[in-house]
Amino acid sequence: MDKLDIKLWSLAAKGQIVPDRSLLKTPEQIEAIKKSADLNTAVLDHIATHIHAGMSTAEIDKLVYDFTTEHGGIPAPLNYEGFPKSVCTSINNVICHGIPDENEILIEGDIINVDVSTILNGYYSDASRMFTIGKVSPKAEKIVRVTKECVELGLKAAKPWGHLGDIAYAINTHARANGYSVVEDIGGHGIGLEFHEDPFVSYVTPKGSEMVLVPGMMFTIEPMINEGSPDFYIDEDNGWTVYTEDDGLSAQVEYMVLITETGVEVLTK
Ligand code: MF3
Ligand code: CO
C-alpha cells in the first residue's frame, strides 16, 4: 500500500465512493491520450470550418472519417455496438446519437451538436460542440449559449478531492435558473483506455455526492440540456437516436477532462 492507497482506503472507510486505481492514468498514458485528444480537437476544428447550410449530415460524417483516418486515427463511433457512422450529428430536438444521413440537410436556423470521438494508437478521446447554422432564433441562440455556460461552470466546480456531484450541481443549477432541464439517464463517462469507462457521470446529482475526484481521473463533462421536459424517447427504427419527448430543443457540449493535483485540465479545447 502506498500513500495514495491509504488515502483512498480511508475515504472509502468513511463511506465515500473512490475510483479504483485502474481508473487513474499514469503519466505515460496521459501523454498518449492527449495526442488522441489533440486529433479529436483538430477534427472538430475541421468541421467548424466546413459546416454550412445545404450540406447533409452524411457529408459531415465523410469529413470526420477522411480527416481522422488521414491523420492515423480511427473514428471511435464507427461500428461501436453497431453504430453505423463515424460521428453523431444531433439536430434541434435530437438530444444525442443522431445518425448522419444523406437525406438530412442542414438548413438556416438549425442548431446541431457534432460529437466526435477518436482512437489514436489505441487511446480514446471524445468531445462535442454546438454549431448554429446561419441566423438562428433567439431561443435557439439562448439554449446553445446557456449549455456552454453550464459546462464552463461545471468545470469551475471540479476540484481534486471534491466530488462529481459538485460538477453536476453547478450545471443543473444554471440550467434550471434559465428554465431548462438536464437529461437524467444519459450522462458522461470515464475515458482514455476505453471509449466508456467508469464512472458514469450524472449531471443531476447533489453537491458533495458521487465519486471523489482523484488526480489522474479522466472523464467527460457532457450535459444534455432540454428547453422543456427532460424526458426522451429512442428511435425505434435505428435503436440509437434520442429525441426530446416534447419536441423541444436540446443542446449539448462535451469536454474531456483530467483531474490534476492542482485542478482540472481540459484535454479537448
Ligand atoms: N460521444 C458519445 C458519448 O459521449 C458516443 C456515443 S456512442 C456512439 O458517449 F456509438 F453513438 F458513438
Ligand atoms: Co462522451
What does this molecule look like?
- Strands 1, 2, 4 and 5 form a four-stranded antiparallel β-sheet that branches.
- The chain has helices at 3-13, 27-50, 57-70, 138-157, 164-177, and strands spanning 74-75, 88-91, 94-96, 111-120, 123-132, 181-182, 188-190, 197-201, 218-221, 224-226, 232-234, 242-244, 250-252, 255-259, 264-266.
- It has 269 residues and is α+β, with helices and mostly antiparallel strands.
- α2 (27-50) crosses α3 and α4 (138-157) packs antiparallel against α5.
- Helices cover 31% and strands 23% of the residues.
- It starts with a helix and ends with a strand.
- A hairpin with a 7-residue loop joins β11 (232-234) and β12 (242-244).
- The structure holds 2-amino-4-trifluoromethylsulfanyl-butyric acid and cobalt (II) ion.
- Residues 126, 189, 220, 222, 254 line the site of cobalt (II) ion.
Helical element count? Answer: 5
In helices, the fraction of residues equals: 25-40%
Principal-axis shape equals globular
How many β-strand runs?
15
* Assembly of the depicted chains: single chain
Estimated structural class: alpha+beta
Distance between the termini: 36 Å
The proportion of strand residues reads: 15-25%
What small molecules are bound in this structure?
2-amino-4-trifluoromethylsulfanyl-butyric acid, cobalt (II) ion
Outline the low-pLDDT stretches: none
